[in-house]
């Protein structure tokens, strides 16, 4: 059966992490990235065990946002592709839906209730919905959280970045007085912190959710991570599986080599930007690397 365009985790199934951080997944639509770019140098015989491409060589991926409630605040992580893309580009990229404000309203959530919007990086499929078709911030009461390194890169003169960063939308948010540039790891509210990773872009950031466990016997997993495009789906859990879209692949491998073992050892729950499957999942270490931990039934 075909999945609906927009979905949200039912309230009764929301995950609650340490410190009362409550998380629901918002599925804001679909897009279809080029399989060769998405998997980079990973050979097709390897990645095709996990997923398949369509007749145009594209993968069916989700536009996943997170709706987080913590410390009396509502935080939206990511903004999807938005409404400012041409019909031609939407066809090439296979986009269905993608407007975060439309998706939230369709799911019974008010965009005006959002206090913070965390943008992992400034590519179109993460930052394209910062503003509406008229150039007004989609979330009128929110502070938009972007790493300063990412904002600087968007305004830089690197040839490889020309035209691929949502610099116009960034400037519209800045002009509205709603941009919050941060530098490094910053706690937005208790139990919700942005963590700079680099790798995919100069200023990419992940989000840590929940306070650390204090070691009490029998205590459940207390933390989660939203990976951004450092690891866009569960398919890219192998540490060395970088994408052709990664601007700094060596850095990406190094950061993943630090964070993935930690996520496995500490039992973090994992949320991914583009994974079409049920979220979150956990990772486990094996003698052949890391994999999705199987759920006991």
In terms of topology, how is this protein built?
Elements (H helix, E strand, L loop, with lengths): L6 E2 L6 E3 L3 E11 L3 H5 L4 H4 L13 E10 L2 E5 L9 H6 L3 E2 L2 H7 L9 E3 L5 H4 L15 E5 H7 L12 H9 L3 E4 L3 E4 L2 E5 L8 E5 L14 E3 L22 H17 L3 E3 L9 E6 L2 E4 L5
Parallel strand pairs: 5-7, 7-8, 8-9, 13-14
Antiparallel strand pairs: 1-3, 2-3, 3-4, 3-6, 4-5, 10-11, 11-12, 12-13, 14-15, 15-16
Report on the architecture of this protein.
The chain has 8 helices and 16 strands. It has helices at residues 35-39, 44-47, 87-92, 100-106, 124-127, 148-154, 167-175, 249-265; strands spanning 7-8, 15-17, 21-31, 61-70, 73-77, 96-97, 116-118, 143-147, 179-182, 186-189, 192-196, 205-209, 224-226, 269-271, 281-286, 289-292. The strands form 2 sheets. Strands 1, 2, 3, 4, 5, 6, 7, 8 and 9 form a 9-stranded mixed sheet that branches. A 7-stranded mixed sheet has the order 10-11-12-13-14-15-16. With 297 residues, it is an alpha+beta fold. It has a single domain (7-292), classed as Metallo-beta-lactamase, Chain A (4-Layer Sandwich), CATH 3.60.15.
